[in-house]
């Protein structure tokens, strides 16, 4: 876009400490020294996207309009936009929402999006925070709309799932395969830990498929827009324990649950967790007795002689609901919730 004369903008701009995004494992990065990118920038005076941090600008106005319509932005909404880039989606969001908080890592983009609204009626409604979306503290928002760098999609989704206070929904542009993982069902090839954890805490809808040519520069993968709506109230599950169990079972999702749980390393881990839990339970009992001014010193002294081994306990749990020969890839949320309850009944606990 043409350069404007320097002037002091009244839009709020906060600079926070930032860490660069990890570029490892990105599926949509192109070489930032791509000659075609340099040629495009030189010929059109457009700011060059930094693909090393996953910048692929959404350039199709029709797709932008569709995303905002599907997000159902209200005039009373505070919208969080992660990665506004040059502001192609920021401006129409400002026209519909009460305000927009734009979280941007690249200082060049901060300047661009501020210039985009300079001296416009929407200028006072925009607050730009420079920082890393993963490590920054997010402000209050009603709605999140974002075309996020694909290599940080998992981190962003998990941060959204854990964010409090609850927001109405998040509408995200993500890599197509990642989008399909979010809503994959038991037995499907893409069903994984991400699928289970997301579906425990939220409802996921596939909204829109977006082709590569809608971006500058085109990424190497297709994209999709998804809506994530948190379940309210959230399920009464300790998510740290839940994720610890799910992580363990999906580490080898094609193996039977018995094969996964009966390895020496897993048995040792679960035994250590069980001893820690029992020790904490005994401390709580002793504390309670002390508070009640009881002189009883009973601490289940004969428990050690009658204890089942961790392997025997696991065999009993797996036989209870015929889980022994089942695989994590085929279990649904109810199955995992039942397993976690059975583990807890037997004093077996997990950590992430």
From TrEMBL:
**Oxidoreductase in keyword set:** no
Please name the Pfam families in this protein's record: RrnaAD
Keywords linked to the UniProt accession: Methyltransferase, RNA-binding, rRNA processing, S-adenosyl-L-methionine, Transferase
Region (Disordered) location: 1-41, 279-306
Which superkingdom, per the lineage?
Eukaryota
Q: What is its EC number?
A: 2.1.1.-
Task: Name all Ribosomal RNA adenine methylase transferase N-terminal domain ranges.
Answer: 63-232
For this chain, the family text in UniProt reads:
Belongs to the class I-like SAM-binding methyltransferase superfamily. rRNA adenine N(6)-methyltransferase family.
> Can you say what this protein is called?
rRNA adenine N(6)-methyltransferase
Its source organism is Nitzschia inconspicua
Upper lineage:
Eukaryota, Sar, Stramenopiles, Ochrophyta, Bacillariophyta
């Amino acid at each position: 876009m043409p350069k404007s004369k320097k002037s002091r903008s009244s839009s709020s701009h906060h600079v926070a400490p930032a860490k660069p995004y990890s570029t490892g494992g990105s599926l949509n990065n192109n070489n930032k020294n791509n000659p075609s990118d340099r040629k495009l920038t030189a010929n059109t005076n457009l700011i060059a996207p930094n693909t090393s941090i996953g910048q692929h600008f959404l350039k199709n106005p029709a797709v932008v309009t569709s995303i905002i319509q599907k997000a159902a932005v209200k005039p009373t909404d505070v919208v969080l936009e992660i990665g506004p880039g040059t502001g192609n989606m920021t401006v129409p969001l400002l026209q519909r929402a009460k305000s927009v908080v734009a979280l941007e890592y690249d200082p060049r983009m901060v300047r661009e999006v501020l210039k985009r609204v300079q001296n416009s009626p929407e200028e006072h409604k925009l607050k730009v925070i420079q920082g890393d979306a993963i490590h920054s503290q997010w402000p209050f928002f009603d709605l999140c709309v974002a075309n996020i760098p694909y290599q940080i999609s998992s981190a962003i989704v998990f941060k959204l799932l854990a964010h409090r206070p609850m927001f109405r929904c998040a509408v995200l542009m993500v890599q197509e395969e990642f989008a399909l993982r979010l809503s994959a069902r038991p037995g499907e090839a893409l069903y994984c830990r991400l699928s289970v954890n997301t579906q425990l805490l939220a409802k996921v809808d596939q909204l829109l498929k977006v082709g590569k040519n809608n971006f500058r520069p085109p990424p190497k993968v297709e994209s999709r827009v998804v809506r994530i709506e948190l379940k309210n109230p959230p399920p009464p599950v300790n998510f740290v324990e839940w994720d610890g169990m799910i992580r363990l079972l999906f580490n080898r999702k094609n193996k039977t649950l018995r094969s996964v749980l009966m390895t020496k390393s897993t048995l040792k881990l679960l035994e250590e967790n069980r001893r820690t839990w029992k020790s904490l339970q005994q401390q709580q009992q002793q504390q309670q007795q002390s508070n009640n001014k009881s002189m009883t010193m009973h601490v289940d002294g004969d428990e050690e002689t009658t204890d089942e081994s961790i392997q025997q306990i696991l065999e009993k749990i797996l036989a209870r609901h015929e889980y022994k020969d089942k695989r994590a890839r085929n279990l649904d949320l109810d199955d995992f919730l039942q397993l976690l309850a059975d583990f807890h009944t037997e004093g077996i606990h997990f950590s992430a």
